[in-house]
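In this supplementary section we document a worked example of the pipeline. Step one takes a protein sequence of length 303 as its only input; no multiple sequence alignment statistics are reported here. Step two produces a three-dimensional model, which step three serialises into structure tokens for compact storage. The input and output of this example are shown verbatim.
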Amino acid sequence: MQTSRTVVLALALFFLFACPAKQDGTLEGTVVPPNSGAKITVMQAGKSLSSLDVNTPDGKFRMALAPGLYDVSVTSSSSPFPMNFPAVIIEPGKTTTLPLIEFTLSPGAAILTGVISPGAAGTRVSLLYEGKERAAINTGPEGKYEFMSLPGGKYTVKADSPGYANDAVDVTVSGDQKAAQNMRLIYITSIDGVDWAADKIRAKGKGLPPATKGNPTIMHEMAKRAALADAQRNLLKILEQIKVDPSRDIKTYLGEKKYSEKIQGFVQGYSIAAERDLGNGAVEVELEFPLTGPGGLSRYLAD
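The serialised model returned by step three reads:
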């Protein structure tokens, strides 16, 4: 019995000294300005695990953390916008440095609100200022979002919903006013001529010169004009297949009259992506249209 106890004690001592606990890693960064009253909050699965008030003269901070994957949020009393750093990796014995954290705005009184359609809960709406994400929320069941206490300025609202093309739109708020910006997302389906990754619609068309011979330059331009008309007809065929949700295409959503008015304006906003000489005076053109963003199809669909 004494021998067994001795063996167990020896094994315990071996694992204690030969297999030390996993070493912590370090999270560090710098807040500008140093006196901004910043607070660092470290989270996992939406739960706060640790926090630190930054009160050093140079704005630098360091936190010891167990190895793992964390979401880091930095808030400041001088700004209405939290700075979010998702999926920060902490490795044992190593230091992870966050990008420079700058707080440049003071709280304001403006409000930005709107509806992201389709009205499903869980669409992520983020607010960007000067190219940086300042805040983000998830919409409710009716697709509503609201950002409060904003300083006046120009912002970008971005919407990201599974199964739909991401979209973004610029909006300006001023003073203590309330601004509204609705967005209509486009449902992603496999359609020839639609490049969802590039956020583009592309339509090709071919044109022939008149049968009677004439000035080569004029003949080429007439063939090109015919190719443009053919490409626009092909574009309309593509648009008829695009949906706003799994059960409704654009025409069903807008109605016949409104569809004709909206699409007529959209079709005029093309750019020529390519022009090819097919021989014997024939011309092929490829037109390109944005799906989202300024001038995009989604802008024509939004209320």
